[in-house]
Fold these 3 entries.
Entry 1:
Amino acid sequence: MRRHVGLAAAATLSMLWFQEAAAGAVSAMAEVAPPSVAQRAKLERMKKAADDLDEGADPAAYRKAWEDVLAYAATLYPPGHPELAWIEGELVTADYLQGDIKGALARAERLAPLLEAGGAAYRDRRMELANGQVVILMTLSEHDKARKLAAEVLEWRIATSRGEPSSNVAAAYSNLANAEFEFGNFDKAIELVRKANAEDRRHAKIPVNAAPRFSNLPVYLLQSGRLEEAVEQARITQETLEAILPAGHPFLAINLNTLARILLTLGRPAEAEAVARKAVDIAVARFGQSQQAVSYMAMVSQALTAQGKTREAIDIAREASAILTNALGPDAQRTLIAREGEADAVAASGDVPQAIAIQQDVVAARDAKLPPFHRDRIIGRDRLSTLLFRRGDMAAAAAAQREAQKLRGATFPADDVATLTGEARLAAIEIRSGDRAGGLRRVEAAGQLLDERLARLRATGARRSGLEIEIRAAYGWALDAAVAAGDEALAFRFAQRLLDSSAGRAVRDELARSTARDPRLGELLRRRQDAAIELEALLDRQLRLAGRGADKALIDEVALQRKAAAGRLADSSAALAAQAPELATPAGAVPLALDQARAALKSEEAMLVAAAGERGLTLLAISSDSIAMTTSPATTQDVAGLVARLRDGLGGPAAQTRAALADSRPASAFDFDASARLHELLFPAAIRKVVAGKPRLLMASNASLTTLPFALLAPRQDAPSLARARWLIRDHVLVTLPSLYSLTAPRTTPGSRELRGFVAIGAPDLAPSGTAMAYRSAEMARKVRDLPSLPATEPELRTVAQALAAPEQSILTGKLATEAAVREADLTRASVLAFATHGLMAGDLDGLDEPALVMTPAAPDDGLLTASEIMRLRIAADWVILSACNTAAGGSSDDSGLAGIARAFLYAGGRNLLASHWAVRDDAAAYLSVETVRRYGRGADPAGALRKAMLRMIDGKPFDGADQPVNWAPFVFVGR
């Protein structure tokens, strides 16, 4: 109760002040005649005209109109009259919208006692002003005062509304929701803001000023970890706002900023940046560099930091901080958020001491204003502990983290994800401080609770959520602790969680179906998996459509599809729980043990696990007879930068997405330094010792490493050249593992495989290729029919068929290569399935929201076999050959490797894949696939056959440019 004393004292002083003011006003009123009927009528007309203006769209015009009203009223009423205070109260809104927050609060506090002195006639207006004060106090981070005042206003508004629709009641609900949200009471905040939205919808026409209230709900849902609900609510909010607001209205920026936060949470910073910049542009166009517009700049800064664009991120964050400090003060919440964004960017640039200094200032400011249990005080200590950890100051890091855990313990349950993240971080600190036993006990306990939380979440059928993203971050700290303790088994367990991906889940889904005790149960499990995946895909599509302002009818159609998919997921989940409860828990709920992995490896095999994280790169090299574990300080962003350099050295973005390039395209300047640095990071001495002499190397990685074929890594040379490079593919047969569970799946050996059938689809009937060298992707072609034909694909498929000599063969090319033909074919009969066509990424064609393979367009189909359509196929192939561009690239919702076309085929039943990481030249793709299959047909292991084909291209140079990495290295063998 002590924290309310200051507010009570302030209220007492205010009462004394307005008693004096009221006495003066009464004395003055006695000397002035009341306005005439005509004067009052004119005043009312001016009020109505001013009130009809949209304060959000044009606050300057709104201010001018009310200033004119106030000037005229001042000729009718004496100074201090409550009628003048009533009118001037509208200028509080104008002050706030134009960025003068402190001025707005000062004006409101001056006017409040004058309205109180007016008695019952002005009580309603006094409550309107109090509602505005709540918003101002929240903006200035005076949360405790705001919450108390908001509760009083809500009680008054409900009592006086007489059951009629009331924007005032809605505003009061919303303000109290904001206050509860700031105290971490998310469920209460969501309940209150839903009541606010319901109240606004009671009007025949939703008022314009209700827009911010509708925009709050998706924010609350996102913050509480309810990602899917947040996306759906953002769609509903966008639809509502577009119905009540004109195009370009600044209130639309609020929801766009929320969409940017969702995209950033999903790990899609480039899209988040684009949407956040749109929000800034809309707000600046109407408000100028106001605090509202500038606060959106903080989101742009965060998105830039996540992309490694630290210099620009720092500049934007500092600009925003300076403007907000001037407008709101140095300790206002929006200012502090901008400063934390600056700290993040500064730390990412490498200046950790400066980042610590900024974060310490933020923590001190919040400690001075917020109650101990406030979420921002706790999270601020988490951030400070992380920065201190990076600097190596373990004592200070431990003190900050223990304080955060102590504050959490009084409010949050033991299995709260943020609490468990803090426990894992504290364990890593303790182990590095010398308390290995205590740290291990702490991280093992935290890891067990994290496993339980993750299992409960996945048992719902959810494919992705804000909560799962938080859990994965917690596993990153747990891995750090295990590595610091030198516990290889524990590190292997946590690394699996960090490496988990959509492609890995696809493998586990297929494995669970294929090993179900009854085919009928396997089919029931598939129905549940299909519904969950469809929900995920529709969620991603909604985000894209909302972010680019798509047609309302299209967004509504997706919403209906999501609702239907949600119903199917609920029904199939209930049926599965009733008929096969053992299958209700998704495969992979229990991580693979290190001993299991070692037992699954053959004597000629080694496995490299590379887990990139925010604090460094963790490496585990494992074989049946040895193991090594080591770390590198290279962060996720450091590794991503090297991967980007290496890929850019292959021709850059243009070479990866062009539909057709001239034959005379010059060779790219290969980045030998980036290749060597990545080789040094991934293969230090301890790792080389385990993998040396092992002909077959299995690779499991995460983040940007999944977008890179490891074949083109090579040790450093004094005078680097393509001819002298010792490519990794020379020393090892390379296999990309989409999931470590692939180790336990049955493997087909050359002696045991049975070649039942071969189905080939490709060479779609498209535009003639002309004299350009065709590439199997698209950029400038905006319709499927405009894509160039691929003359090498039909002979490629027929040569592959001849090399395999399968008993059953079906080759669908030209006009036969349609989507309908793929759907109608019995693909379960094919041991080998091959596609030779264009591979498209999301956005390569107008309206394409997910990766796709190009087929011959034939009504009613569009000629695009999308990833979601591939996932609905029934396949039982030992090998799927994807001789197309970007088939190992990311998907619309996941930019990690294998998340698009490759994932779709793994889910549909493809056990092993041949997939590409970038745009593939038509002749190069044909050569690699044919040479690989020829050797496979003669009994070779497919991954070994791919290696031989690559080496023949490098050494034999069968065509011009064959020895260029861009041509021989794009394909990887994915599987078991």
Note: The CA atoms of residues 872 and 908 lie 7 Å apart.
Entry 2:
Amino acid sequence: MNTAKQFRLYCIIAVVVLGLVALACVATVVIRRFRPRHEGEVMVKSHASIWVRVLQVIAAVLAVVLAVVLNVETGQYKASINNVFQNIQKSNASVTTNAKDWTGLVHDIGEQGMVLMRNENGTLPLKAKKVNLLGYYAYNPMYSPLGSSHVQSSDAVSIEDSLESSGIQVNQALKKASVYPAPKPPKKVIGFVPATYSNAEVPIDKYQGEASFDKLQQYSDTSVVVLGRSGGEGNDLITYKSPDGHNYLQLSENEKNLLKEARAHSKKLIVVLNMSNAMETGFLNEFHVDACVWAGIPGPKGFGALGKIISGKVNPSGSLPDTWVYDNTSAPSYENYGIQAASNAPKSHYVDYVEGIYVGYKWYETAYAEKAVITSNKTGKTFDYGQHYDDIVAFPFGYGLSYTTFSQKIVDGLSNGVSLDPRGKLNVKVKVTNTGKRAGRNAVQLYMSAPYTDYDKTAGIEKSAVSLVGVAKSKILAAGESQTVTVPVSMQQIASWDSSHDNGDGTHGSYMFDKGQYVFSVRSDAHHPLDQVEAQMPETYFFSGKNKRDLDQKVAVNRFADVARGKYLSRNNGFANYTEAMKSVKSTVKTTAQEDNANDYPKSLDAKAHKMVKGKDYAKKGKLRLEDVAGLKYDDPKWNELLSQLTVPEMQSLVEDSLYRTPELPSIGKNYLTMDAEGPLGLSSMFSPDVTGISYPCVPLMAATFNPDLAAQFGSQMADQGHKCGVTGWFAPAMDNHRSPFSGRNGEYYSEDPMLSATMAGNVVRAASKKKMAVYIKHLALNDQESCRSQNLHTYANEQSIREIYLKPFETSVKVGHPLGVMTSMNFLGDVYVGSDSALQQDVLRGEWGFRGHSITDMDEAKLARGADAAMRAGTDSWLTFNKFNVSGDSDSDIYYLQRASHNILYTLANAERLPVTVLNWHLYVVIASVELAIIALALLCAVIVPMRRRAEKG
């Protein structure tokens, strides 16, 4: 029995029980009314009988109140209740993959994504056949992040299972002695699972008796210690308060003590990191750890890869999607992150991206190139990047070891001295050779170093010392075998943004290339080059005026001037303005106009609407159906004909009734609902456990494969699982940035690097879209922290960083993947709520990039749907919200924008695999229950009135 039918059964039971109560109440009144009175019987008036009547009156009033509340609340939350009672129909959609394929991809992501970070003296592959498996998370691992990306783990492969299946025996003494709490049976969770942070590592005195370290050493001289960290939606890791003063990405005292004892009692000490966020790893040196594997958060089945890697059955080939450092406070973003309340607006918060483009390795590698010496304004610590890079960066972006060795050489597509075409495409061919003794894969990472010119310094254009421009992955190469791997690069997509350029038409800002030398290098990671080619850009080149980039629908110009404030970090003179930039952040917001009046908008927007005539421009009788416009271009005349058939209430329902669904529209033959689902790591529903597929590893682990083909397979499989579950719209993938290692949501975002994120996300979107899944890329834009995200978070950033860092994955996904949906974020861009930001939604998303489809908000936690009229004019089509709201449909302009929103939503539906969903009639049970409550109230009142009348008659 599915969930909807279970709830219907509960409703039937409830109304039956309530009906029996009502029947009992009525029977009691009737019996008392018509019971014959015995001769001489005296009506007794007592204090007890008076209290009985008082209680009866109170119960009657409560029954009436309950009936009223039942009707009011079911009306208020009608959309949510509809979702609970959705009856998913059997899908006839074409599915080309099966459960075996899905599980196989999970294993591939784990095997190609887990990163061998350290391997002293060939510790791994493990030679020992017995190990002591230590640490709370060894037996209670993190299988998925929390929040909307949470997945079920009822059929999980444990770390112990993984080791045992690879021929490594695990000491059972720790389990027998109950050193660690037994894993709790996973519950089938419906809805949102909020992120919470704690460190559950047990104190060292728990290791006693047969589980003492002396006894453990007798079993094996090899220890595997698992360290875990959670993460998820709703809270950032920075909110964690440690009792011993450590932040969440540092070791706790219990963990230090565990490593100390494990080191003292082991010849070989291996650490497994079960987390999405980049932890401070100085402890690897402090405790002389022999080997370390980053396992990410690999999903219920993904840990199967860990035992294979440790045992050597699989040669690791993962590369870190983030920079791991010894001190996370060294990142400039640390100075402007987390909970920052505005001093001039008690209900508002702010965050300033004053580091500009210098995020992740773009900061660390450029600071190294500039030999910068930086003192943090927040901590007072000084970091000398020129002299002590290796003391600051533990593991560069892209780092990953193997059990073999490789060489890489650029052999075609680029050569020294070649002249670059700013509008061209490169197909860089890299020869990868396995120079070691074991078979294995190797990631190809192609970087570019652009010239940093005097013009750049004057114009305020920033250039990272190195920037990733393309990735690929070799096949499994036998010892001595070579493969030539092609890395495609679109020059137009790696141009820099110049906010100062005068376009000669009254606008400023354009993409550009400086004249000069461009160094392309293949690297083992962002810091270590393997081979390079020096090419030349013959002239400075601007994509300006009519000279737009090929994939742009309109030329790009400055759109976000109002989002910037203060000073932004510049590499000029070795980041000489670091202190000035960090101190330029103000503890205020520029304006609270949006908060004060969310529904305010320029009245000039209403001038676009012509006179709307009922029966002609809307509510017109017609025969077109939604399926008649499937496959037609967005501007095909038939769309206007179809839209004119919609009534105003139907259009309002499309905008208002969008909580993971679309409503019925009888005027165009849509006599069914459709259903949407969450799921960056696999399908999940806020309302029904029936909507579920297989659970995949965390998104950073997928990014760590550096294999775009695996991302495409994931997109294809998610479409198939959606089709099987009756899902029309998929709210994923998420592609915001790892601006900080403390972000709670890093587990569902790809990387700190925009190009890696864009490459992987673009492949996911393209593959899922090809199978007619309505993909909703999210969260547009700059949703890079969870703290205060729904508390009027004013996010300030400059145009260059917005375009080059934060919008890049979205831009690529739209242009390459052609998604049918976008989910906007909860925060503000500058002082404008993203849902009401026409520069982002109309000028950039639809105007420059050419997006066609449905724009829906993220969950309306801040209740900004009160500004629905303004947001709809800015480009928002509907709202994801539990709260009832109304969008206006009175004026000509109201109807014009309702038609535009309806066009966008229906374009998405028309071109997706529409999977009908019905809703079981729960309204009937509300009516029956209301009638029963009314009968109970009436019976109770009669029980009071009847004896009083009889006494009066007697009296």
Note: The mean pLDDT is 90.
Entry 3:
Amino acid sequence: MPKYVYRFSEGDKDQKDLLGGKGANLAEMTRLGLPVPPGFTITTDACRAYLADGAVPDELAVQVTTALRQVEEELGRELGAPEDPLLVSVRSGAKFSMPGMMETVLNIGLNDSSVDGLAEASGDARFAWDSYRRLIQMFGKTVLDIDGEYFSSALDAKKASRGVVLDYELDVDALRELVEEYKAIVREQAGIDFPQDPRGQLDMATEAVFRSWNTERAHIYRRREKIPHDLGTAVNVCTMVFGNMGQTSGTGVCFTRDPSTGRSGVYGDYLVNAQGEDVVAGIRNTLSLADLESLDPESYKDLRAAMRKLETHYRDLCDIEFTIERGKLWLLQTRVGKRTAAAAFRVATQLVDEKLITTDEALTRVTGEQLNQLMFPQFSTTGERDLLTKAMPASPGAAVGFIAFDNAEAVARAEAGESVILVRRETNPDDLPGMVAASGVLTARGGKTSHAAVVARGMGKTCVCGAEALEVDAAARTVRVAGRDELLTSEDIIAIDGTTGEVFLGSVEVADSPVMTYLRRGLEIALDSAGDVDNRELITSVDRLMRHADKVRRLAVRANADNPDDARHAIHRGAEGVGLCRTEHMFLGERKKFVQNLILASTDAEREAALAALLPLQKGDFVQMFETMNGKPMTVRLIDPPLHEFLPDLTELSVKVAVDREKGVLDPADEALLAVVRKSHEANPMLGLRGARLLLTMPGLIELQVRAIAEAAVERLRAGGDPRPEIMIPLIGSVRELQIARERAEAVLAEVGAESGYDLSFPIGCMIELPRAAVTSSHVAEEADFFSFGTNDLTQTTWGFSRDDVETSFVGRYIDEAIFGTSPFESIDVDGVGAMVRLGVEGGRSTKPGMKMGVCGEHGGDPESIAFFHSAGVDYVSCSPFRVPVARLEAGRAAVLTPEPDRQ
């Protein structure tokens, strides 16, 4: 027979999968000899069986009876007895804490008979009837699904009729009347009388907790926190102890350190003559633990001793719920406390200094996501804010500025010293200059992996996407907001919060965080400008853990950088090189016309002239990049995008040509361009003529780019520099493609090397972005000096997804249906795309042991993905400059959390 019920004395803290977090910790406190009311836990197995079958397992009732009778025998009382009744609470408790998401029912066992027994045993009739009305209210709302407003309205009406304000000011007669009114509400709304059988109350409450696992709010919370939907919840049945038995009783919550700031010391709230929900509801002003010390020194002393014991045992900040019943302390719950990002770093280093944990362990107590939160500016929460709308928070931070509708406006106003927010229906690669110039980006369409979101995160720009309430008219340069009358223009200032998705009208003050000052300008300057002690300790804690992460990590961290500014930012944040320099970004803006000339060339002479015009531009870019990255490796990806990104939109150009022809003012150049655009048009350009295919079919393109790299390297060598380019061929599917590209690249390197007298034997490798390249990696490696996994495209091609399309169409549904845990464009799909990465690593090193492997997709900066890349044996990850510190920290965490991977 499966075991569904465990007494608190049977479990321990390592059984969270079975007993849930609350049950496991109650068992652990019992094992430690702390004052825990007797009780038992119904396992997550029972919940899963209930959710699967729609009924409680037959064995559960028998096991609950056995455990309940053991509790009754231990205490000498029976559940719901007419004299001195035993009462219990029924609380949810999943493996992962989900505060407020599921259900609790207190005072199970009270009925019309036992309420008098409780009054007599306690000597306090008011307390007994108050406990009974609380049970009916909680039971009605939680178990019988009655709208809580019915009970709240009855309570408010009763207080008004008695001329009192607070619940505890109602006398016993008023509470008796309220109980009858509550029972009438149950009868009217649920169609049944309030259950008088104590065991029936217990069984119904247990089922209600099971059902609460699948409430909408629980689903939403689990999606947000990435908690699996199939875990189920445990149910904890615990003897009631009462904080509402007069002035020597009370209830509270305490923390062994401040969970908000991380300050060491004792923090908590206490309420005299109250039950637990009173603290949470905030209906009364709480007292501090210092007040408890003066009210009840003995209980305070016992609580402090328990807090110290638990923190020493768990070796972490602990969150403790307690009740004092007539001067006797009882502990109802403990858990490793949730904390802010700032508190996480401070507490971790405090525990190291107190020699409770090692520095390696301290790394496991903080996360890259927490560091990310500390890096972004934040809005002040003081003062009035005019909320326009709330949409999808795509890239954290806070930004304020004038509305800018296009690149030209954003760039011009930024150069004039104004802060602007680029507001678009959606963005595309042509919007890059405006995004660079803007303080933040707001789009009416798109999701977390839309262009705006991905690029903004890469640049560390605040971004809010999918603001459907906005009607953006770029031509008229106006924005309308659904439900509001005003028409916003370029003269209006807005503020966007990339952490919450909120958009405000008007200015809200923002500033660099202390941690960002540290990462940008160093420890000494950050400490000098930190201000208070809290910020100074936070900066010092972040510095200590970052330095330790750098010490222990195996993964190197590079940056994706296409210009010297990005490269400098990356170096300041600790990047050890550039893992992806996208050369196509060097051809955007005003330079696009030179690429168009190359595409339009119809003769060898025209093509050579176009190439000759591009060469000095590209060479100049590389000279600057090599100077910035002096002595550090820089992986240069040859041009990758399909031709359509350098050509006008087919529809727009067709309309222009047709209108101009009708007016008799057609420019022959436009007509010729339209013919080329039509010829180049592809149904699915991301899987068409791009990457290696474009390089091999457009004469002179490889030679142009490699010559620009080679000549720029020679110029830097002559100036005493140390350029270290690595040439990367994108979208390889066949070893023969790479072989041809390599031969052409090596010919140019040899030619420039012979002319200059320098050895230009630069590494030549390829991106692994196609499943075929991963499957045949042992062959591809014959022609490659290194592999770099482009996980953005590898995800698209492994899943058969178009990233630009799926986010808004069905990714959300797939997450709801548990097909995805999270979007595969945010975190690596370990089983599918991850398998392709492992296959590529293993295949490449089977041909060339020790072959260098890197990752240059957006996943290279994702905290969850970095742990996988460490285990897969890659040598480095490359991410946006802004995410370099996060990658450094997560690489250190991966080194201490997972074994060293096998590496040939």
Note: The two ends are 49 Å apart (CA to CA).
